[in-house]
Amino acid sequence: xxxxxxxxxxxxxxxxxxxxxxxxxxxxxxxxxxxxxxxxxxxxxxxxxxxxxxxxxxxxxxxxxxxxxxxxxxxxxxxxxxxxxxxxxxxxxxxxxxxxxxxxxxxxxxxxxxxxxxxxxxxxxxxxxxxxxxxxxxxxxxxxxxxxxxxxxxxxxxxxxxxxxxxxxxxxxxxxxxxxxxxxxxxxxxxxxxxxxxxxxxxxxxxxxxxxxxxxxxxxxxxxxxxxxxxxxxxxxxxxxxxxxxxx
Length: 248
Description:
By secondary structure, the chain is of the alpha/beta class. The protein folds into 2 domains: 6-57, no CATH class; 65-240, Collagenase (Catalytic Domain). It has helices spanning 6-33, 38-61, 83-100, 151-161, 175-194, 221-224, 231-240; strands spanning 64-70, 75-76, 79-80, 106-109, 116-121, 138-140, 146-150. The chain has a 5-stranded mixed β-sheet with strand order 4-1-5-7-6. Strands 2-3 form a two-stranded antiparallel ribbon.
């Protein structure tokens, strides 16, 4: 498990305050109703339940803004990416992440001021993970609104699946193809990690190599294939994500 970073803790604390405020209000109404007759008590309880259901419906219907922030060093293996290549990776990553939620009212942009945040960092910070397991390409802590995509691990996986790792490698892709593949890998990993965040939980690590919610990124399809959500993930997504607003 990765140690909590200050910015992750700050964002999670802000969201937690909002939820706690709603819970305190509901608890106050329930406590207040105990002083009244049974009939009034039942009426107050029904009103409280109606309020909770309405609030839940409102939150679900509200568009979800997803921010993607890049804090990595843009070093792919032993090669530094140019400014043009960096811009290309960002554009492909943002488009891939947006395409993953086609049909839902989810907007994606490069920013930090969003409802949900995904940070592309340099790499995995060694913490408490089972010995012998490889470092993950993405990470979301429990009860978090912030996720991490680990740039170094994702680059390593990309170079491995394309045969471009090592001095005696037989690379099957051009540099521009690797740059596009890296962008798709970041976007796909970000979509997966968003599905691990609290209140969503639609990424259940399915046994599907072509799914965003698949349990591994160590596949060619993760970088160069056409990905989709599993049926199980889609069922949950239709329940927790707002549908895309109709075009007028």
